[in-house]
Design goal:
Blueprint (H helix, E strand, L loop, with lengths): L3 E5 L5 H10 L3 E3 L8 H8 L3 E5 L4 H12 L9 E4 L7 H6 L5 E2 L4 H11 L19 H4 L7 E5 L17 E3 L12 E5 L3 H14 L5 E7 L11 H10 L2 E8 L4 E8 L3 E2 L5 E2 L1
Parallel strand pairs: 1-2, 1-3, 3-4, 4-5, 6-7, 6-8, 8-9
Antiparallel strand pairs: 9-11, 10-11, 12-13
Helix pairs in contact: 7-8
């Protein structure tokens, strides 16, 4: 009976990696990740190992691994990290020294070894959110000195909740609406699925080059009620040409995903293509 693996990947090459693992003799579940009840879903599936692809969104891989290791019920499942830029995954490697990291061409061997020995003493790490406990909201949201930040739809008194805001931060008029091109970061609070659908392309188009965008959305467990969730935000932003790379809990009512515009490649004839 082939060992069953849960492959977690945000890479366009996910299907290729899954096929290679199947060819190596594994049974692979590479279905899209459902973040609701993530730990219990993986625990109930009882895979021989969880393989996390770090080629794209290594911060997401870090978050998933932290959740698994912070859970008593899933901590014993071996985790294998595959691919990824060495510099970008250095922090994760330091946080989980007991987990194997392998290039994709060596992944099958690393997985067999991980399954054979198991995590005898798996490192117990804090969940991804707990790692930011005690930090000011300004730090969580990556606010830096000298930065211009555009606010859109922020709740009353939001700036006051940022804690000790880094000196020199300037809050400016919303991008896109007033054509402000100075903002290095934008923060957009979305309250309904219709607002998200109607405005996301407009906001993306107005985002200055190399600027980042936080899209904040109501928590399902909060006081606010919304007809969309994190998955809806990610899907809408993806259609508008953006990719997410960080998540943050703002308070009891709001969470956020951080986006950047998807990079484009220059074609031979000089035209850009995605």
């Amino acid at each position: 009976m082939p060992a069953r693996l849960r492959l977690i990947s945000w890479s366009p090459e996910a299907a290729v990696h899954a096929k290679a693992l199947r060819s190596a003799g594994f049974q692979v579940d590479a279905t899209a990740l459902d973040t609701s009840r993530l730990v219990s879903r993986i625990r109930d599936a009882a895979p021989a190992a969880v393989v996390i692809d770090l080629e794209r969104r290594p911060s997401h891989g870090h978050a998933v691994a932290s959740l698994l290791r912070s859970s008593k019920s899933a901590r014993e499942i071996p985790i294998v990290f595959a691919g990824g830029d060495a510099e970008k995954v250095a922090r994760l490697r330091a946080a989980m020294p007991d987990a194997p990291f392998a290039r994709w061409k060596d992944a099958a061997r690393a997985i067999r070894q991980a399954i054979a020995r198991g995590p005898a003493q798996p490192v117990h790490v804090k969940s991804y959110m707990q790692q930011y406990a005690g930090s000011s909201l300004a730090k969580k949201l990556d606010l830096k000195a000298g930065m211009s930040v555009a606010l859109m739809g922020e709740p009353e008194g939001f700036v006051d909740t940022l804690g000790e805001v880094t000196e020199g931060i300037e809050f400016v008029s919303p991008i896109g609406r007033l054509g402000n091109k100075r903002a290095a970061l934008a923060m957009w609070f979305v309250r309904s699925g219709s607002e998200l659908a109607a405005e996301v392309a407009f906001v993306s188009a107005g985002l200055p080059r190399d600027a980042a965008l936080w899209i904040f959305f109501p928590k399902q467990s909060g006081r606010l009620r919304a007809d969309f969730n994190q998955n809806g935000v990610r899907a809408a932003a993806l259609r508008a040409g953006m990719v997410d790379y960080k998540i943050c809990s703002v308070d009891a009512d709001w969470s956020g995903l951080k986006f950047k515009k998807r990079k484009t490649k220059m074609a031979v004839n000089g035209r850009k293509s995605s």
